[in-house]
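Dear support,

I submitted the protein below through the web form. The confirmation email said the job was done, but the results page showed an empty box. After a refresh the structure appeared. I'm attaching both so you can tell me whether what I see now is the final result or a partial one.
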Amino acid sequence: MADSVTNAALRPELWRKALFADVRDNLYMNRFIGTTEQSMIQELEDLKKEAGSNISFGLGMKLSGAGKEGDDPLEGSEEATVDYDEDLAINQLRHAVKLTGKMDEKKSAYNMRTKAKNRLSDWFAERVEQEIFDKLCGKTSSTFANTPTIAAATRLVYAGGESAIGNLTSAMKMDTKVLDAAVQIAKMASPKIRPIRVGGKEYYIAFLHPYDVTNLKQDPVYNQAVREAGVRGDDNPIFSGAIANYNQIIIHEHEYVYRANDGSSSYVSRNILCGQQAGVIAWGAPVNWTEKSFDYGNQWGIACGAIFGVIKPLFNAVDYGVVTMYCASAAASTA
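What the results page shows now:
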C-alpha cells in the first residue's frame, strides 16, 4: 500500500501562505487596512500582476456640487470626480533563520518549518508595522522604499501652544487641548482630512506613544469626558484595543509611535491623528518561502521575503490624511 504524501513542489507555496497569514494576523494595523480609498491604510496589489518598481494611485477629493432640487434637470450638470496622483516605490525585504543541525534539532521537518515560520512571521510583522508607523510619523531616517517627510506646519500641533520642537519642555505633554486642536485642523484643512465612517458616524483614529497615553490619562478634562462617553463595546474592528473615544477620536496606544530627543532637554513624540488614506501600502510580490540545506543536508535554513512599500501620501506638499501632534514624552515617574 502506497502512502499519500504532499507534493514537494507545493510545500513552499503552502508555507508561504501560512507565513503571510500569520504576518497579517500579527499586525496591529491590520484592522485599519483595506482596499478602498475610504480605508485608513489603503492596500494596493497592482504590482503583483504587472512589472514595475513604482505605483501611482489617486487621492480622492470630496464632491463639492450642490445638486439639483425638484424636477430641475440633472443631465448636463454632472460633477466630474477629482483625483490627484501620488507615487509609491517598492523594494525587496528579506530575512532568514539557520538551524544548528540534526543532532541539536532532533525534530521532524514539520517542526523545523513551524519553528522557522513562527519566528519569521513575528519578525516580518514587526518590520511591516514599524514601516507603517515610521512613514505616518514622518521619521525621515526610515528610508526603506520611500523616505517620509516631516509634517508641514498646516498639519502640525505642538503641545503647550509652542511653534517649534526645540521649544518643547518636559511640562508640555499630551492633553485634550492637543487632541482638540488636531481635530480642528483635520476638519478645517483644505482638502479636509476625511474621517473614517462607521455605522453612519465619523471618527478619526489617533495613535499615541505609551508615555503620552499616561500623560493624557492624567488630564482631568479627558477623564471627565471618558466617564461620560467612553468606548461602549462597538464591534467594529477600529474600536478593538482602543483606550477611549474622545471628541470624535478613537484613541489607540502603540510603542512604535516615533519618539526622539529633540525638544528643549526633553524627548518628543510624534503622535498622529489619521483619517482616510492616511497611509498606503503596496505589494509588488507576495511573501516568498525558500528552504536550503547546508553541510550535506545536516543543516537547514529558511528564508522569507516580500516586495512592498509604504508611504504617507502628500497633497500640495502637505500630509493628505495625517495631523502630527508633537508632545514632550517621558516615562512615568512615581515621585
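Response: this is the final, complete result; the empty box was a page-load delay. Residues 242 and 252 are 5 Å apart (CA to CA).
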